[in-house]
Amino acid sequence: MNNQMIITSLLISSGLNLLFLLAASVLISKRGGFSFVVYKILQIVKVKMNQGNMTYPPYYQHKKSQFEKLPKSNSDIIFLGDSITDEGEWSELLGNPHIKNRGISGDTTSMLQNRLETILDSKPQQIFLMIGINDLVYDEKSPEAIVAGYKQILQQFQAKIPTTQVFVQSVLPVNNNITRYWQNPHNILKLNSYLQELAQEFNYQYIDVFSHLVNSENQLDVKYTSDGEHLNGAAYLVWRSVIAKYVGYFEVANNL
Fold first, then answer.
1. In terms of DSSP bridges, do strands 77-81 and 126-130 run parallel, antiparallel, or are they unpaired?
2. 177 pLDDT higher than 70
3. Beta carbons of 109 and 45 less than 8 angstroms apart
4. How far apart are the first and last CA of the chain?
5. If DSSP codes are grouped into helix, strand and coil, which group holds residue 221?
6. DSSP of 187-218, one letter per residue?
7. At what angle do helices 143-160 and 185-201 cross, to 10 degrees?
8. Sign of dihedral through CA atoms 13, 17, 23, 26?
9. What confidence score (pLDDT) does residue 184 get?
């Protein structure tokens, strides 16, 4: 009898665990699959950072320390931003050996300011900046708050590297039909409108990449993404086509 009770108890426990796993799988699937899990992990990291238990994620720290050690040159063309920039093979895409990818996955405007000194020290020829989507999605900042932090970055550019040609790229769209938590398209449109005004204020070139990747609902076209936020190869080719005429402009001008 005791053995039978133990077996019955184990079967009930196993059944309940299985039901829990199935329920969790359905929930995760509805919320966006693996991307939802990543989102929740990043939310936990954010809470720990705010509590002072953690400074910056290890990936950020490792990339930042590597960028500090790498050679710097005033002929550099810097691509600066978060995972959207980080995942692009920019030197190969644009066929320019002077391009250096300084994107870090998960980066925000405030985290970028923490590592800006390395960029300023190099006094690069050009900077292509795209930052802000993580501020919206993970930090839940308003477009107005993001622009305030963005302005501090541009102020440092203008004060410390006045001869560097800076390009303010629009924040890219997301697709909430693939992953449901990303962001309200209206907030991204509003932020991009502010960024365009901010670029004009600093006399920097604003580049609209957003409109080249959207569908009729102002969301990231499904043909360009698997998770609703990050880009596939076709999207990077579109992005390249939008910015190619600006890259290495100084080199072209000097050779005329």
1. parallel
2. yes
3. no
4. 94
5. coil
6. HHHHHHHHHHHHHHHTT-EEE--GGGTB-TTS
7. 30
8. negative
9. 87
For β-strands 99-103 and 126-130, DSSP reports them as: unpaired
**pLDDT, tens digit, 9 for 90 and up, residues 110-147:** 999 999 999 999 999 999 999 999 999 889 999 999 99
Of the candidates 149, 165, 164, the one whose C-alpha atom is nearest the C-alpha of residue 246 is: 165
| Structure-token pair, residue 8 | 């019955």
Question: Chain-centre distance of CA 66, in angstroms?
Answer: 19
Angle between helices 2-31 and 34-51 (to 10 degrees): 90
d(CA 218, CA 181) in angstroms, rounded, equals 16
Residue type, 253: A
- Residue spans of beta strands (DSSP E) within the chain: 77-81, 99-103, 126-130, 165-169, 205-207
Joined together, the tokens standing for residue 157 give 């550019």
Q: What does the angle CA 102 – CA 103 – CA 106 come to, to the nearest 5 degrees?
A: 145
Cα distance between residue 32 and residue 244, in whole Å? 33
Tell me how far apart the alpha carbons of residues 139 and 238 are, in angstroms, rounded to a whole number. 28
pLDDT band at 251 (very low <50, low <70, confident <90, very high): very low
Q: Which residues contact 84 (CB under 8 A, 6 or more apart)?
A: 103, 130, 133, 172, 229, 230, 231
